[in-house]
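YM 10:42: Pirin sequence, as discussed on the call
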Amino acid sequence: MTTRHIKKLFKSRPTIEGAGVHLKRAFGYSQVPQFDPFLMLDDFHSSNPADYLPGFPWHPHRGIETITYVLEGLVEHGDSMGNKGGIGGGDVQWMTAGSGIIHQEMPRESPTGTMWGFQFWANLPAAQKMMPPRYRDVKAADIPEVKLADGVTAKVIAGTVAGVQGPVRDIVIEPEMLDISVPAGTLFRHPLPAGHTAFAYLLAGEGYFDDCRDAYAHEAASAGWWDTERRCVCSAETVVLFDHEGDAVQVTTTDKPVRFILVAGRPLGEPIAWYGPIVMNTQEELRVAFEEYEKGTFIKHG
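YM 10:58: structure's back
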């Protein structure tokens, strides 16, 4: 296997979304289309209820999938199709907005005192943007944890590790989503489909994320700036975007362990027209979507 090199690093940055939720944005609008088919990743991690309780009241989505992964705490949700429920520690919700859905996501005060989770958006290709909305609510108990050599563990949400397939399947972009922990002083390699976009988001610890031991070896020298402090080792709250060339990622830890989310998917290579919670292919499609929302004709399937 040939190892993928690091294309670029991004440090997550504080922002406020929803009705006043304080979170950190790992990547978003300004990084499009580098992460194609992925659009955005937000990290909400706080022990102060005032940071997260305002939540994300009723709002529309069209043309995308939203993926929520809760590590600690509880998020209640409801939607225009009458679905209601909650996701707690270790649970995942994979929502395909498709032709349109109106929903809310409201964090509740965490029993542990800490709310920690992630939401990222994946784009839908033009041919599926108006597909019927659907949910996949996956409980922590249904997510397999694979124990690999040298104490490495991988929770398989989507994709396959050591012949074990995750519960999220039959998604348009053929995603892989893994929660991986690598002990100190360990080398871990994982194969990836050729040509798929891949990134890692570090939750804790540190490690080297390619075989060069220089996270900036492939950064454009002429740019003259970097998105994070120049260190060879990558640490928490950092996004590692990999090159498309190569068929495996490699992670080597120092005297500290590392935990990270690894996400990969098939790029779409299509134009993007994005405003707020709606992502289409043209400005005209955006105009129609917001016009329908104002007129009350936004929901096509219910």
